[in-house]
Task: structure prediction
Amino acid sequence: MSLFIVFEGGEGCGKSTQARALYRKLCHQGIPAVFTIEPGGTLLGTRIRKILKNRGSIPITPESELFLFSASRSQLLKEVILPALQAGKIVICDRFISSTIAYQGYGRRLSMTTIERVNDLTIQKLVPDLTILLDIDPEEGLARRRDIYDRFESMDISFHRRVREGYLKMASLDSDRWGIIDASLPRKEIACIIWRKILDLLKESNHSLK
Result:
């Protein structure tokens, strides 16, 4: 049985590190898994990522930002995520639609109605089985980043506080599908907490372990 697991969080929370670690552990356990990232994961997505993430890139309006993320996501869904899920694999995705709601909705203050409509067109009703939110104080998260070249990392602190607020609100409204973890904990402890959550999902879906 396939599973779709998404990692979310603000800048410097360590979600990418933990997502890759989970992918490696699943592979070690002999469980078919796929790791991917947003924006990116496809040729088109990689090119869009360079445009979106590079602070020195061309100016991008919040609305254009929304559509670019969604274009990358649509391509990723059709090329990578859906085929893997249909093949019975576990998909680990570094960011998904909740990032759009947090960053473009709460952060950029775009209309939530507009974001919901765009998301509905993009994701084809796909909902993660589990979203792991690595929660961290924005100041602490940004302090972990030594070289700030990212357009989002360079935003003012109020933007990052709104992003965190958005994540926590989404998690509170769907606690069955979200798991909040304190990202200030030691890396190994976070990995253990995540693995326990994954074990519960694996048992429910009858995945066998080595």
